[in-house]
Design brief:
By secondary structure, the chain is mostly beta strands. The protein has helices spanning 26-31, 36-48, 68-76, 294-298, 302-307, 411-417, and strands at residues 51-56, 61-62, 65-66, 91-96, 102-107, 111-116, 134-137, 144-147, 154-158, 164-169, 179-182, 198-203, 210-215, 219-224, 233-236, 243-248, 254-259, 263-268, 277-279, 284-286, 290-293, 315-320, 327-332, 337-341, 346-351, 374-375, 381-385, 391-396, 429-432, 437-442, 449-453, 458-462. The strands form 8 sheets. The protein has a 6-stranded mixed sheet with strand order 12-13-14-15-20-19, with no helix packed on it.
Length: 463
């Protein structure tokens, strides 16, 4: 019987263990949360999936006639060889309501339009004007529009050439505002009234009557609409230069203001004792709690300082990251973008594309635009229009050194640490578009990007 038995190997070789990658979704099933590194990896896939899916030119009508923006677009068609002549054209600001149902836009030509967002996703790339909730031609330049966060029936708009803020109620079919807020007159010693236009607006999320607006003289005006049409409080800087952009924190306790001189000022609205204040029984003035000079912070980045001559630059816009509230993004007039950490007031991320003058050295029309950028609602992705070409940058500003824009990013160290593989390498994305972008906004739920252009069109960029 022994001849039928298979001989046993006295020293069998141990099989080599098969190395298997960890199951990334196991933690999701256990605690219902994605691992932060895996979430960052997914963001790179999201960035690569965006492209332009629709373009909607501003060829609208008011009372059967082409609106002012439509007319300016038609007149500028013959001025393509003279870009400096096209100054009053272009989308200057965009804003979604909190649910992403409606999109408000304003143009340099003076049109305020409230779009039904569903009509901007039609396959034929033609918006149904009948579905627009509001379309007003004001015949004056408009620079900013904002929804009232505490009352989604109200929108406010204003201009850097106007000392009034007009508030409209979309529930009323009327071209007249339901309320007008005004700036206090500023009389010089010679008896002249100094003009102060408004550059940005911020609404409180828990008080529909509370509104703040920055002006071209370095002041943030605060209104209590129940008390007066004039501001009851003024937050001042140490300069008379324009405050181009303001943002109110999610808890409505801190406000940030970005200036033309390249500084970011912070006011704490909770405790007035920390300010140097003066005033009378009708109004108060408060100086910022802290002012950060961006050029000074950028000089601390040794690799950047070695390659660039860092000087103070105008800040076009700022925005708070909805995924990481301590990240305050900024966009500069030369196309640079970055992140200021509001915990330690240091620049943590920076992106430096080629300047616009390399391709268009004589394009003076760029000087009339304050380019407005936006965060996507998840994954710390920042969308910003290119200053030198027809396109949009999607920047990975993830709050970690694995972000390619982080000042401490080192590709070799990250790969050797095993945090990411070559296939998972994070990178920014440039999305080529049909027109040059002046402002953009992201849908609060599905992260679709709507970009306004120099030719007053709306471009839809989606996955």
């Amino acid at each position: 019987m022994d001849k039928y038995l298979v001989p046993v190997n006295s020293s069998p070789e141990k099989p080599k263990p098969v190395k298997r990658t960890s199951w990334k979704r196991s933690l999701v099933e256990l605690n219902g949360k994605f691992d932060p590194d895996y979430r960052h990896y997914l963001s790179s896939l999201i960035i690569q999936s965006y492209s332009e899916v629709g373009a909607f030119p501003h060829k609208y009508h008011v009372n059967g006639e082409p609106c002012q923006t439509h007319g300016d677009w038609f007149m500028s068609a013959g001025l393509n060889n003279y870009p400096s002549a096209i100054i009053r054209q272009g989308v200057s600001s965009l804003d979604f309501d909190s649910k992403g149902v409606y999109l408000a836009s304003v143009t340099k030509s003076g049109c305020l339009t409230v779009h039904d967002f569903d009509s901007l996703q039609s396959a034929d790339s033609k918006e149904d004007e009948a579905k627009q909730l509001l379309h007003i031609s004001t015949c004056q330049q408009l620079d900013v529009v904002r929804w009232n966060l505490a009352n989604q029936d109200e929108i406010a708009c204003t201009s850097m050439k106007s000392s009034e803020i007009h508030i409209f109620d979309i529930g009323y079919i009327s071209s007249e505002p339901v309320e007008v807020l005004r700036k206090r007159p500023n009389i010089t010693v010679h008896g002249f009234n100094i003009h102060k236009g408004f550059s940005d607006i911020a609404f409180s999320s828990n008080d529909s009557s509370r509104l703040l607006a920055s002006d071209t003289n370095g002041v943030i005006n605060m209104w209590d609409r129940r008390a007066s049409a004039l501001p009851l409080l003024e937050l001042t800087t140490n300069s008379t230069g324009s405050l181009n952009s303001i943002r109110l924190s999610g808890d409505n306790e801190v406000i940030y203001g970005a200036s033309k001189q390249g500084t970011i000022s912070i006011w704490d609205l909770r405790g007035k004792k920390s300010y140097g204040s003066f005033g009378n029984h009708k109004e108060d003035y408060y100086f910022p709690l802290i002012t950060v000079k961006l050029a000074h912070e950028l000089e601390k980045i040794s690799s950047l300082k070695a390659q660039s001559n860092i000087v103070p630059k105008e800040i076009h816009s700022i925005d708070i990251d909805p995924s990481s509230p301590n990240q305050l993004a900024f966009h500069l007039d030369d196309g640079w973008s970055g992140v200021l950490n509001t915990n330690n007031f240091q620049v943590t991320h920076i992106h430096c594309p080629p300047p616009a003058w390399l391709d268009e050295p004589n394009d003076l029309a760029n000087l009339s635009y304050l380019k407005k950028s936006c965060w996507l609602p998840i994954n710390s992705i920042y969308a910003v229009g290119s200053s030198s070409s027809n396109g949009l940058y999607l920047l990975d500003f993830y709050p970690d050194s694995t972000s390619p824009c982080h000042v401490d990013y080192n590709e070799e160290d990250i790969q050797s640490s095993g945090k990411v593989t070559i296939q998972q390498k994070q990178q920014n994305r440039y999305v080529s578009l049909s027109e040059s972008v002046t402002a953009c906004v992201a849908h609060p739920l599905n992260a679709t990007i709507v970009a306004g252009t120099k030719l007053s069109s709306l471009l839809v960029i989606s996955q």
